[in-house]
Structure formats: C-alpha cells, structure tokens
Amino acid sequence: MSAWALLLTVFLACAVEAVEALTVVLAAGTGRHWGSALQGTGAALVALAAAVAALGPAIGLIPLDPLRLVVGALLLVFGLQWLRKAVLRASGHRAHHDEEAVYARQLTAARAAASGGRGPVRDWYAFTLAFKGVFLEGLEVAFIVVTFGSSGRDIPLAALGALAAVLAVAALGLAIRAPLARVPENTMKFAVGTMLTAFGLFWSTEGAGARWPGSDAALPVLVPAVALLAAGFAAVLRRTAASASASAPAPRTSAEGGPR
After folding, report:
1. Does 164 score more than 90 pLDDT?
2. What value does the mean pLDDT take over residues 115-132?
C-alpha cells in the first residue's frame, strides 16, 4: 500500500470517529460543566494511551501473513457495516446521520440528569459522559491505527494520519463551539466504508496465501470497483423504493372526504 493511501484512509476514518467524540464532549460541556467534561476527556486520553502502550507492541510479534488474514477479516466486517449503512442512507431506506440532532438529544439528556460531583470533579455526569464518548471512539481510532499501520508496516505514518484528523476536528470544534453538522459525514462514511472493505478484501486474500495481480497496484482498481458496486446497489434500492411508492394504492376516502 502506498504511503498516501494509508495516510488518507486513516485520516478519513479517524475524522469520522473524532466528530462523534467531539459531539459528546460538547454536549457534556455545554449542558453541564466544561471543567468536568475536559477532565473526563483528559482521563479517557490517558486510559487510551495506557491501553495502546500495553497492547500495541504485541502486534509486531505476529507474522505478517496471519496478521493480514485476521486484520483483513476484521476490516471486512467493520467496512461492510459502514458501507451497508451508507448504501441504505444513499438509497433512502435509512435516515441520514444528523450530528446536530444527536448533539441536541445528548444536550437535553445532560441537562435533565441529576447534578453532583466526586472529589475534584464538580459534575460527575459530565465527566462520565465525556470519558465514555472519548474512550469508546478513541478505541476505534486505536484499532484503525494499529490494524492499518501493522499491515502496512508503518504504524508511525498511521498514527500521524490519526493525529492530524483528531487535531483538525478538535480545532474546528473549538472554533465554532458546535457540532460539525456541516461536515458531510455520510459521504465520509461511504468513502471510508469503501476503503475499509477494499483493504479488507486485499489483506485477507494475501493473508490466505493468494496474491493479487500487480500486488499493491491492485488497490487502485479494487477501491473504485467496490465504490461502483456499492453505488450500484444504492441506485437499485432507490429505484425499487420509488417503484414501490408509485405503485402503492392511494388511501380510500369516505363520502365526507376524510380517510377511512
């Protein structure tokens, strides 16, 4: 895999996770207490760093082919889930992900929760909400960095892409103090799902002992092929939904003009 492909894939995937984590932190800070939300964010980052430091080096001890087989299978599961949701949203079978609506729901829940602190934390709810949001999304970022970086034998470059994504999203969030509702997250998820699925196919095949024609040169063909296939599914589903809607019988009305 080329360095630019690795960097771009990790950046996009981690940017999606960073947007979701930022939404949770903003809800905790705006709806409750900024100091406690930032304390929860810091605690989550420390816990993530400890987890990655403990588990990350063990990845390097695994032989490359078994590692690619396992990582490829995981990426296929992960990528197909994202791609499935993106296809359903693009075809109208699933509502688009609305980060602003998610932020509003979390803000309402945060304001309605009981107040109270523990020790140096003034608002335990804000601390816990921010910690869980950052830690869970951070685990996914760590998974992306370790799997892509290990398979590509360039963890520092993958970590650089993740760091750039997190810093870019955090800077935008601090600048506008609102969820990044204008970020085309559904489009990003379609692109990331496509790339994760393509890389999953590539690595699981190589890990099983087969070799793609041209080795890494097959990826520039595999990625658009997966994208075209997903777009084709979305178009078929969209046309099927439109045909079903057009052929549905109109609601019967009573003599007074109202629906029965």
Report:
1. yes
2. 76
Structural domain includes residue 22:
yes
How many domains would you assign to the chain?
1
Closest CA to 186 of 236, 131, 234: 234
Q: 36 lies in which domain range?
A: 3-241
pLDDT band at 185 (very low <50, low <70, confident <90, very high): low
φ/ψ of residue 119, rounded to 5: 60, -130
The answer to whether residue 188 is domain-embedded is yes
73 vs 66, 80, 106, 128, 203, CA distance in Å?
Answer: 11, 11, 34, 33, 8
Determine contact, residues 168/34, Cβ cutoff 8 Å.
Answer: no
Cα–Cα distance, 178 to 103 (Å, whole number): 9
**What local confidence, expressed as pLDDT, does residue 244 receive?**
63
Range of weakest confidence among 17-21, 208-212, 239-243 = 239-243
Q: Does residue 247 belong to any structural domain of this protein?
A: no
